[in-house]
Amino acid sequence: MSATAEFLSKAATAFQHKQGDVLSQLVLPDLNDPDVELISEELLPEDVNIRIIVLKSLSNDNQTRLADLMGTVLQYVRDATLFDHDAHVALLRSLRISKIYESATKMFALPDSGWFNPCIQQLTIQLLERAVEADEAQDDNSRDRLVAAITMVTNGPVKTAAADNRESDALHVIAPRPRHIAFWLANLLLQNSFELRDTLASAEPILGFLGPQMDNLHFFTKAEQVTFHYYAGSVFLVKEELRPARDHLQLAFELCTNHSLKNKRLIVINLVTVSILLGIFPHPHLLAMFGLSDYFLPLIRAIKLGDRSAFRQHLDSNIEWFRERYIYLILRAKGEVLVIRSLFRRAIVLSRNLWPPEKIGQPPTIQFEQLLTAIRLSYRYSAIGDMDVSTWDQVDMEALCASLVDQGYIQGYLLHSRSCLVVQKGPTLGFPPVSSIAVRNEE
Length: 443
Known about the structure:
Blueprint: H1 3-16, H2 20-27, H3 34-43, H4 50-57, H5 64-83, H6 89-108, H7 117-136, H8 144-163, H9 182-193, H10 199-209, H11 222-238, H12 242-255, H13 261-277, H14 284-289, H15 293-305, H16 308-317, H17 319-324, H18 328-354, E1 365-367, H19 368-378, H20 394-407, E2 412-415, E3 420-423
Antiparallel strand pairs: 1-3, 2-3
């Protein structure tokens, strides 16, 4: 029996007995193994037809997809001799692994394919690693191969595993199911997605497919649960869906043990970010515990005081730290809204103390001119890309107040005839807790 025929016989036996661990070693053969090198030599002659060789060994009706899979594997083995000589070796390897993965995906879609889980797991790791190597070998710094790999896994095995809701055929029989690796696959893809700048394009479909399996997440290992909640929360944070982001990150924080302080610190950074943007300020002791006081306390202080200059100055002076963690832009955009909101509230309180209302029970009001003065004081530090607030007038203040009222950050109305903002009476003075405000894209 030739080395190739023996190789295919082993694959047929593993397939017949549903030995996923054995088959995973065959679909990803070690190219330096002497037996594999012998197979490569047998396949090199030009008159060798791989398809015919495969069908001679795998001709049964139930072996059709296995034959397709092993055919792509043999093609990979034969082309291995080219990898050492071709200038585009990384790209060739990535393309060949993609072909193997495409065939494996079709096998994984068969009924009762849980036994094939180890093959999908090993192939997924190889697919992503080869894609990264191919991208790094390019001169244009593109991530095209990694994007294609993530898309292939998402639309293939992730979709199949997430849609698996079939019950076991017999009681007390624990058989592997495709859904058992749903979150393992998702976590691996989400981790790689965060290596890309276009995080949402890669991550959103993954979270979308996992919907039917969310009720089963607690059956997975604690490590898998922590990883999923961390990345899911981070994706929602990028999408500016703050409440689901905080829910996921809070769960990740609670599930993560204190033995993994490095991972817990990563979770805390995003959890603190989203909490601040919801007006929920963390205790200074928590920030100190994870060495984050110097980064977040000045921001919290600036928000409370309505000091936009201090807020942007601190954010910009630590721009690299915030950017590396993908939180600079959302802190700048959402955080400045909270700063201005606090500024206006303090201005109204001060105005009400200096000039009490003429009538008892009259709702608090403040002139746009007074708000403009407060804005100019708060904007004393000129950040990159800032508008010149010295040119602002009461019309700009009216537009700014209208925006805050429309978004729900201020409960009140504008009195155009008197050029003033009127806020609701009550203990909050028309400034409800930020955590209670319905964010527009979450409604």
